[in-house]
Amino acid sequence: TRYVPHQSSFDFAKKLDKVQTIVLIISTAFAAIHVALSSIPSKDMPDVKCYDDLANGFSTFFSVIFITLDVIVNYKFYKAGIEKRKDLIDHAFGKNYTGGKSTGYFNAQGVPIGLYKLAVQSFENSLFTNEVAKRMTFGKWSIAFIISAIFVLSACIGDKFIVNSVLQLGATGVLILQAVKLQLFSSRIDDIHSDFKRLFTDLKDGSDKTLKEGEMALNVLNYETTLAWASILTSSKIFNELNKQIFPAKWEEMKKEYQI
Fold this sequence. Notes:
The protein is an all-alpha fold. The protein has helices at 7-38, 48-93, 115-156, 162-202, 213-230, 236-245, 247-257. It contains seven helices and no strands.
């Protein structure tokens, strides 16, 4: 039976992330309406200015909500990450900081407790994170490009208060920052996963593991600090698809390859 104590915290953060996405879609729709209405002459539609101002105002309002939710989601991810790290330590060192360890989450049965097991668990996690993040980047950039183009166009046309333009461009900045952060995150996780591969390649010959404890700790810290810095909620849809098709078999293959 699979039990993951920190899953509810991540699920809540993902629900907020979905709400943020809906808010972004609504804000973008109003921005697009504003762009469309701005091209209609008042002589053809006498009330166009009123409708245009309303659309622009709603777009700005939902932009503010989008920016606010981004801060909240990042904080909720940070809190969930603390719970996840406690569970990681519980399994690696035989502790019980969570009050109830996860079951069916890590696949490092038979590995003696200690720093080596911590490195094994992080190696497994880096595999999953690396594969999912790679598949998320294209979609994130596509969305950021399309929506940012609409927001920038909306902010640059029509008569409006300067605050409307600033807030709409602020939402654009958050969206682009998310895409850039995901790209950097994916690149960094790929490097860390390669570092783990190099570490476990060196350990294959049966050498004294204590001589590599410094490198183990460094790789684990690099992985965890990268997760905390980026606050990226990886796609559950992509993870579930890969977990059915690739992950279990690939991790078992890697355990044999690196003699874990």
